[in-house]
Amino acid sequence: MKAALKVIKEQISHFYLIRRLSLYELKNKNQNNYLGMTWEIINPSIQILIYWFVFGSIRQRADIQISNGEEIPFVLWLISAFIVWILFYQATIQGSKSIYSRLRMLSKMNFPMSVIPNVVIFSNLYIHFGMLTITIIVLNLSGYVINIYYFQLIYFSFGVFSLIFALTLITSTLSTIIRDVHMFLNATLRMLLYLSPILWPIASIIDNKLIVNILKLNPLYYLIEGYRSALFGTEWYFITHWQYSLYFWGLVIILFLFGSMIHVKFRRHFIDYL
To answer: How far apart are CA 191 and CA 185, in angstroms?
Structure first.
């Protein structure tokens, strides 16, 4: 618990630095491109088009029925989840190597190492909010207008951030000690894409309730369904499924406590891994 409080205090006291570094990193990453940071939106948009072409065009995917019984076009159903996946995947992968890839810089700087994963997450959050804005515009043009359930997006955005930060505290620490962790994580997350309700409605295509409940242990399932409930205006998902909300936050807290503990314990030795 002391380690967790220490990490939280470090994030709060260095919040201005986190924002500055995240913007600088985003700009520096794209400074040699003619289109600059626009590529951060173009790349995921191309990915969405590819998945839509494969799963929505070639295989003739039918409209998807959502929780209120309404049927929506597959491509809109896909986009509403894919923006969450892109944030989760990119921030988790980049965050897992954020410390060991910057060890030489960190040895010369005077700020806590726990802010480094957060810098990476914030860089990806800016892109996420851009993608979310585009998604909202597309949905409104398609007839799914802004509704009161949009307020849930604040809650679920914070939920995505909290989950990623808890995970990156763990993976960035382990990756610094054992570099193979990053490669293993990359392979695991690619598999997770097909075990989450992103490319197909898992609850509708799997009859075995036990398997569906096991797949729901994946916290991404909760976040994706929450985003869809907000964007399509179906329900207050975090209230209707309050047991699921308790499970999600319980898991995040456990991951954060564990991540904070091992991060604070090992970070004094990180420079030794140079």
So the answer is: 10
- CB contact at 8 A, 71 and 63: yes
- The token duo for 214 is 């096991």
Structural tokens at position 10: 């470090």
- Helix, coil or strand: residue 63: coil
Chain centroid to CA 269? 29
- Whole-angstrom Cα Rg for the chain: 19
Q: What's 195's DSSP letter?
A: G
Strand pairing partners for 71? 65
- In the chain (274 residues long), the average pLDDT of successive 10-residue segments reads 88 89 78 67 76 63 73 86 93 89 73 87 91 89 90 96 96 87 87 84 75 88 94 92 95 96 83 57
Nearest of 193, 186, 188 to residue 96 by alpha carbon: 186
Q: What are residue 112's phi and psi, to 5 degrees?
A: -65, 145
Beta pairing, strands 71-72 & 64-65: antiparallel
Query: Which residues make Cβ contacts (< 8 Å) with residue 78, sequence separation at least 6?
Result: 48, 51, 52, 55, 56, 198, 199
Inter-residue contact 223 to 160 (CB < 8 Å): yes
pTM: 0.91
The tokens for 200 are: 């197909």
Domain ranges of the chain: 2-273
> For residue 257, what are the contacts with CB-CB under 8 A and spacing of at least 6?
1, 3, 4
The identity of residue 138, as a single letter, is V
- Per DSSP, the three-state class of 72 is strand
Residue 105: how many other CB atoms lie within 10 Å: 9
